[in-house]
Amino acid sequence: MLEQLSGQLEQHFALLKHPVELAAAVDDSPKSRQLAQFLDEVAALSDKLTVTREDNARRPSFAIRRAGTGIEVRFAAIPLGHELTSFVLAVLQVGGHPPAVKPEILDQVRQLEGDYEFTTYLSLTCQNCPEVVQALNVMSITNPRIRHVAVDGSLFRSEAQARNVLAVPTVFLNGSELDQGRMTIEQILARLDTSAPQRAARALDGKAPFDVLVVGGGPAGVSAAIYAARKGIRTGLVTMRIGGQVLDTMAIENLISVPYTEGPQLATALEQQAQSHDIDIMTPHHAVRLVPGTELHEVVVEGGAVLRARTVILATGARWRQLGVPGEQQYRNHGVTYCPHCDGPLFKGKRVAVIGGGNSGVEAAIDLAGLASHVTLLEFAGDLRADEVLQRKLASLGNASVVLNARTTEVAGDDGKVTGLRYEDRVSGSVHDIPLDGVFVQIGLLPNTEWLEGSPVQVNERGEVVSDDRGATAVPGVFAAGDAATTAYKQIVTALGSGSTAALSAFDHLIRTTAVAEAVA
């Protein structure tokens, strides 16, 4: 099972400082046998790893436990796919290898009072799940009053269905649902320690003004920050998370010189390269207001802290566009979802719909057809906009159908989950109901620019920051880049170029305004 990775894993496990037990709860089922084989192969890679047996209600499952202590994390899963990294990190951290987490964050975890029992429902195909699993594992290893088990919703389908888990990751705390979706350890702590955001914001107050302040941590923002830092000027980057929309992207095959990568891998590479430069990276912080000035611009973050800079680059990216119909919000993450890669496995054998006939929508329908009993793709226009090769593939599938000129009007549901969808035929005006278990919305992106409301920065009817081919906005010293700006195409490669263009333009602005100021003086 691990033949191709054994050498690499053996090197990792050489870092273990303490003996670690892999305590398995298994039975005679095929999945239990698969888990037992996996654990035996892992244990053979280090003399500090041993496999033991224990009793647990979830089978197959296992604990990673520091021998002779209560330090442990638990997986009710066979941690392959995206969760293999989570497993390896958990083994290393239980075995005494320090996690790559800021010391002040670990101190905050240690100081949490009370008992916390976390359960995370995940999918092995989910790219958002590992960050949540790894964050909670670190917390449980750091604080003995915190416990965490990661449960594969596909493996324990009846349990996930009983808790109405229709999106991953879904995190339960002490039996009640805490949240869904990607979360960093800082964001989880903010939910538990309500004063954390204010303390984090106060830490920003008093920072010296930046020459360039980048708002946003996606490809455009990171590219802008790196280009600015390479000019030797004081550079800051404020964002909720490094990677942005890239973190929710599966396969990336059109980034020139990189034949194939995946979103989280690219996000990690972006963060590592940013950290190798002299950039003040401030996370997780959400910008809420821009106040342009004559010499210094101000960016206000949630919690009230104010960051000042001579130039500002707006690179806040975009998010999935929503349908805006009755039932969408009510059943969001309970049948209405926006990530087919993450949530698709939870709809195995069920009926689903995909809304949107562009590349993303058709790709989602193709992927889901391999899991669902039937996929209905609904497109508002009279034809699909996806590439011809994708359309041909979709047409070849026996359990997929396409409805054109379909205006979705309502998502129906009952007992907390989706039961159907209503649409209107835009040509005939007739109304149709489709019985469904899930709705995957793939209708494009919406720029994250609401926070600019009230500022003199111009935003067009699509929500994009209006900027020229140099990234300059109508406000001197304020630039825009990436999906939040009026760039022609929304691609990773164009975002990288857009960010670098904005940074070079900001540097040029600084040179010119400094020269004018010196001449006047």
From the alpha carbons, calculate the radius of gyration and give it in angstroms.
Answer: 25 Å
Proportion in helices: 25-40%
Task: Label the CATH architecture of the largest domain.
Answer: 3-Layer(aba) Sandwich
- Strand % is 25-35%
Instruction: Give the distance, in angstroms, between the N- and C-terminal Cα atoms.
Output: 72 Å
* Spatial order of the strands forming the largest sheet: 2-1-3-4-6-5-7-8
Helical run tally: 14
Per the CATH scheme, the topology name of the largest domain is Glutaredoxin
Features:
521 residues, alpha/beta, Glutaredoxin, FAD/NAD(P)-binding domain, 3 domains, 8-stranded mixed beta sheet, 7-stranded mixed beta sheet, 29% helix
Would you kindly provide a brief summary of this structure?
This protein has 521 residues and is an alpha/beta fold. It has 14 helices and 27 strands. It folds into 3 domains: 3-194, Glutaredoxin, CATH 3.40.30.80; 200-316 and 476-520, 3-Layer(bba) Sandwich (FAD/NAD(P)-binding domain), CATH 3.50.50; 336-443, 3-Layer(bba) Sandwich (FAD/NAD(P)-binding domain).
